[in-house]
Amino acid sequence: MKQKLMAFLVVMTIITTPLLAQTTTPASGLTKIGYTNVDYIIAKLPESKVMQNQLEVTKAQLDKALGETYKEAQDKYEAYQKNGANMTDVIRADKEKELQNLQTRIQEMQNNAQTSLQTKQQQLLEPILTKVNNAIQEVGKENSFLYILNMDAGANSTPIILFAASEENNATPLILRKLGVDPDKVEAAPAATTPAKPATTAPATTPAATPKKK
C-alpha cells in the first residue's frame, strides 16, 4: 500500500498544463526561455512528505471501513451457505436480499473511497501548487525569462521540452532555492532530453471480493 502511494506521489498527477512565468524581453533583444519539471520540484518539497503521510492515513481508514463491511458480508454468506438448506423460503429470501444489499454497499464504498482519496489529494495539493507557481513567477521575473516551460506535459503525452543544448536555462535550481530547498542536496532533476514519466491517478482502496451466491 505504502509503495503504491509513494509511487503515485513521486509522479504526481496534478500538472496537466505548463506553468508559465512571463516578463519583459531582455535588453539584448534575445528571447530567454527557461524550463523546469514541476513534478520533480513538488516531490522535493517537505510539504509533499506531509501530504503523503496524510493520504496514507486516509487510505488506511478507508481500507479499514471497507474491510469490516466485507468481513460482515463474508460471515453472513458463509452462514447462509451452511444453514440455507434448513431455512424456510421466507427466511432464505430475506437472507439473500440482505447479501445482495451488502454486495451493493461494498461496491458503493469502493467507489466512494476512490473519490474521497482523490478529493483529499486535490485539497492537499492545491496550496503546494500555489506555492510552486508563485516561486516560478518570481524566478521568471527576477531572471528575465520570457517563459518558463514545464518539461512534463502530463499523462500519456509528449514532454514539451524534447531537447536542450545546455543547462543554462534550466530554472529548476532557482525555483528550488526560492522554495527553500537546496538543489545541491537533492537528486538531480531529469535532463530535458529524458521524457518525463506518465502521470498516474490516485490509487483506489484495495477492492474486496464480494460474496457470490450459488
Automatic annotation (TrEMBL):
Origin: domain of life: Bacteria
Organism field: Dyadobacter linearis
Low complexity bias spans: 188-214
Keyword tags: Coiled coil, Signal
Pfam families per UniProt: OmpH (PF03938)
Signal peptide: 1-21
SUPFAM superfamilies per the UniProt record, alphabetical: OmpH-like
Protein name: OmpH family outer membrane protein
Gene3D superfamilies per record: Skp domain (3.30.910.20)
InterPro entries: Chaperone_Skp, Skp_dom_sf
Residue stretches in coiled coil: 92-119
Family named by the database record: Belongs to the Skp family.
Region annotation (Disordered) ranges: 186-214
